[in-house]
Amino acid sequence: MPGNEENAPRVNSEITSSQVLLVDENGVKVGITNTIEAIRMAQEQSLDLVEVAPMASPPVCRIMDYGKYRYQLQKKEKDARKKQKVQALKEIKMRPKIDDHDFDFKTKAVRNFLESGHRVKVSVFFRGREMSFLEKGEEVLNRVITECEDVGKSESKPMMEGRYMRILLTPLTSSTAKTSPAARDIQQGE
User: Which residues are CB-contacts of 130 (< 8 A; sequence separation ≥ 6)?
Assistant: First the structure.
């Protein structure tokens, strides 16, 4: 039903003003008209009288197919939602004594997430006596930062949160991330 929503425009008999500035279905300004007469003109054409500018004096009303108008608005909103990029937060966990192969595998996953436009939280978990070797965890995180610097950047230095040392990597803008390090070296050399 028209006018069910709070910010939906008033339609036909919902218009309270006695006179309105009428605009026909082609967008041509008709002039100031009695509201009842404007509604009758809209109904003769099997259309609706829709209040498009309620704050104007007198309010501006347009003759249009209100159902079609609402459908087009909903379609635009749906298209806008479809084009939105949802940025998820992904997490990769590592250990301070991580093997090179495991490091390479997890770093590759971090790169893929960053290239897909996701933010990535990289965590190093410390157990027992490993807490006395925090610099090992910091080395691992700094290695991740340098390996992924062409597709993402760290928001801050590695920080401790309980038994975890963490960094948050955010993807670079698409124009800078698409050029590989070798391509950037060639561009800078010219």
Answer: 95, 96, 97, 136, 137
Q: How many residues does the chain have?
A: 190
* Gyration radius of the chain's alpha carbons: 30
From the number of C-beta atoms within 10 Å of its C-beta (0-12, 13-18, 19+), residue 117 rates as: middle
Task: Give the pair of three-digit tokens for residue 162.
Answer: 């309980």
Q: How far apart are CA 21 and CA 31, in angstroms?
A: 5
pLDDT digits 0-9 by tens, 51-68? 888 888 888 888 888 888
92 closest CA partner among 141, 142, 158, 150: 141
Single-letter amino acid code for the residue at 138: E
Whole-number mean pLDDT of the chain?
82
List the structure tokens of 41.
């003109």
